[in-house]
Fold this protein.
Amino acid sequence: MATAAVQSGERETYLNHQYGIKSWLLTVDHKRIALLYLMGITFFFFIGGFFALLIRLELLTPAGDLVQADTYNKLFTMHGQVMVFFFLIPAVPAVLGNFLIPIMIGAKDLAFPRINLLSWYLYMIGGVLMLYTIINGGVDTGWTFYTPLSTEFLNTHVITAGLAIFVAGFSSILTGLNFVVTTHRMRAPGMTWSRLPLFVWAHYATSIIQLLGTPVLAITLLLVVCERLFHLGIFNPALGGDPLLFQHLFWFYSHPAVYIMILPGMGIVSEIVCCFSRKRIFGYQAMALALLGIAVVGFLVWAHHMFVAGISLYAALIFSLLSYFVAVPSAIKVFNWTATMYNGSISYQTPMLYAFGFVGLFTIGGLTGLFLASLGIDVHVTDTYFVVAHFHYIMVGGMVMAYLGGMHFWWPKISGRMYPEGWGRLAALLVFVGFNLTFFPQFILGYMGMPRRYWDYSHSPEFQILNVLSTAGATILAVGYLLPMIYFLWSMRYGKPAPANPWNAAGLEWMVPSPPPTFNFDEEPVVTWEAYNYDEIKEEVPVAQ
Amino acid sequence: MPNSPVATANHEAHDNPALLHHFASEQQQKDAASLGMWVFLATEIMFFGGMFCAYLVYRYWYFGDFGAGSQSLNVVLGGTNTAVLICSSLTVALAVRAAQLGKQTTVVVCLILTMLFGVVFLGIKGVEYHDKFVEHHVPGASFHFPGHIPSHPDIPINQQHAQIFFSLYFIMTGLHALHMIVGLGLFAVITYYAMRKRYGPHYCTPVEIAGLYWHFVDIIWIYLFPLLYLIDRHK
Amino acid sequence: MANNVDALYIFLLTVSALMTISIFTMIIFFAIRFRKRAGHQAEQIQGSHALEITWSVIPFCVFMVFFGWGALIYFKERKPPDNSAEVYTVAKQWMWKFEHMEGQREINELHVPVGRDVKMIMTSQDVIHSFYVPAFRIKQDVLPGRYTVAWFHPTKPGTYHLFCAEYCGTSHSGMVGSVVVMEPRDYEAWMGGGGNQPLAVTGERLFSELGCVTCHRSDTQGRGPNLVGLFNKPVLLEDGRTVTADENYIRESILQPAAKIVNGYKPIMPTFQGQISDEQLNALVAYVKSLGQQPTGQTGGRNMATATPKTQ
Amino acid sequence: MSEHVSSLKLYIGIWLALLAGTLLTVIAAGIDLGPFNAVVALTIATIKATLVVLFFMHVKYAHEKLTKVVIISALFWLAILLALSMADYTTRLWS
């Protein structure tokens, strides 16, 4: 096989061994598929972000003056749907997980490369349906699709939005299936379960949720579509149905879905904290078990979204109690990361800055989750800006921070180029400051009683100051997100070539060249070391300096 | 994948053309495929699980109307269909056995029998759907389900609650039938390859994997039959 | 109630702030103290089960306090006191309709006297709404097809925001109103302006107009169960179950009489689904409930204005 | 996992048992057992499903526990969905 790279005399990598659109669209290489995902996910991130900015601008003044009420409703609906189903859920697994898991466990590819490609196509079909929905006038159900509003009372594009998420859901299922089978079947000799990087454990736990939760969402959305088409009455109280059944089924998936978003982020942060502290993870076993624990217990708590929805008093007590059980493994993780830093040798490269941010913001997000799990307080703050702030601390402060940290950490591996460190640190700082300025005021707004999804708050001008702060923060945040986009693109051409292991990090992915060759490994590696063996890794001056 | 010199390049290194490049051994590939199907079936359980949950809630609320709806279903056709599916499960199991033993003709015969049973099942299902359509038992504007609930001859059937029963009936059996159709498609492809003697003692993973799927579809029906057809039958 | 919620909130806030500050301090301290420098080597630590158990068990115990305290408040919030004044509420896109026991009707404004427990009995005509008064720290979703209940105890006169907290379509943010808490004297004056028929009296009239009274007689000869003294009592059903005759039970029995047959009676009552409005249904429920207080000899609604305020 | 080749006799036996189970379900549904009608029907269905899983799907001869773990996890998750949902529905009428 005479490939382009061989002809030009360069080292052959997954990026240059073939050229042309077809070689990308029909590729079965997990690394190329990861890049395909990266493009889709970045696109949707900026679409969702654009909606978010419009929302923040509208809320700058109490009166509804920038857009119409219906437009505003569509904006927050599509912001939620795009961000949750087309960015947050696929982002880390489909990009970083796809790229890294096979390399981390010493495999040539995922177990089912063609299914991997299929899941990218499903994601794109879902994405196109979502775009079709947006361009045709959008949908205004709220991302939660609550019935009977969504089934009987709105005449926007509910069906296409539902199908978009249905299809994207199958993409998520197939990714999870691939990861589970890969982790079980494709590990290199010596790569035992107790030697797996926590990044892999995190994705394994995530995959369990994707596999067992997503199908319930799929059938629920299918039922919503059927309700709209045939007026069956399953979720419609006017026809004998129960709208709370929809909420039960929806949250059975959508609460664990939060852990689909955050667990991979936890995996990333474990890698970064160890690397830049030059230390083994504190309590490997507990960290791995906590990931699995969160994945399992996360399924037992869904009705804490429904404490004021009209569920039985006794069910509310059970779900509140169970919600606290899921907080314990989360607490272990935060303490163990902190303990990992103890007596380390810490340096402050960009990925580590994001990891600091993650641990801090996740702590705040997690602790405010305890407020919401407490029945007496939940009654007051649910469906207010307190909830909005809480889940943005988890999803944006947690997951997006981790995602950016991971992108910086592995960018040299993915692209073969270094990003500009100074700009990286500046962007990390902007994101942290912008994020807190945007969302911290919303906690206060929520306790003051500002309900979420309000287009107009002219009846309560006292909410304005905090909303202005929030909007100001959002603009800083937007700059913080645009910067990496720009310098990553810049670095692809002008960045310094990256050495195989620019961070002197542990792990198989740092033993292959940057960018990796098509088959990852020339010969099957044999693993003889524990994960994070930083005591055995010599600190060298990076070769490319 | 016509564009992939990777796969072809590596295929040459192995004796077995079915071994894909990224697997180290045939055993590994086979184990991966089998685990993949089992994990997929776990997903399927939750997919049907959402509907079983809806079913359970409304059966608990509207037991009488569910009983009435159930009794209007044709238990003879439903029971026959159960038997037909069980027969098809047997022929699939025999097809896998024949492949393991290298009996090429038996594989093909068993697969064709399986598809035949599958088509018979769908045909009977079609007859049942047709009957329901004629009787106006299909949810929608023309839905009409007169009568009384079985345990209480003086309580008339609540039309809305009966409509929920039939909605669930059509969605659950409809999705089951859709799974059957997918299975028939799989078997059509596999039969094609079986005729070309692709499968034998060394390589019969596709037959096994498709078999697992088919058995699962059978099991779903084993539950759907009593849950939908046999509520309060004795009254 | 608001004070209880705030006390718990401050407790949680304190504990959370302590935890957040200690985590942040540790991160910053470690980051500086153990920064990378010449001659400093990272010390490899495998972990410590003792420490891990400590920082799971201690937080868990604290969490259980959060749970217990929160549950106590919630339990109270879900159990309206027996002698509350009652306000029947119908929510629709996008307004709140209130009806007092004395028959006063209001839209988007609710007048209540200081110091009196108020129980909101709410239903929706279309989609899910949520009754939210931030100042009282209460919120309850309002569902179509059934009643949900919330209650509060106003302690200070003033005008408070009322919000719909569950997204309900185009004018969700316009579905706002106010709760006006008045001194009992002012409230009486406001009340006096009406000359309305008490809700239970309206219900009693409907009860005879619709012919309910022919079967539901106040003796044992009726073809339907005697409704006197029924409210809030357990009812033995024909299938052996026992249910409490609350507002939802009465509502369901009017709309779907066949759903729960009382032991010893025949299912002969016709359905009133689609034949009476939500307001008429509320009046009927209020009347049947007023029969529940029969021992006191009262059939009309209790007069809120005569109630003396409790401690403020 | 298919290294094991089952005998023809076993397959036919299982097949007959499944057919008998179907017949038994229909007969049992005709007898008034009160609330136990559903229990009997589901017990027979579960026995039938177990036979299919163990013998037709060869789980009895699987060389590792993983397959069983996958099946049991899926059923466990289904149980979570059903049990916790019903925890709400069955207690709504409690006062």
User: Anything to note?
Assistant: Chain C has seven helices and twelve strands.
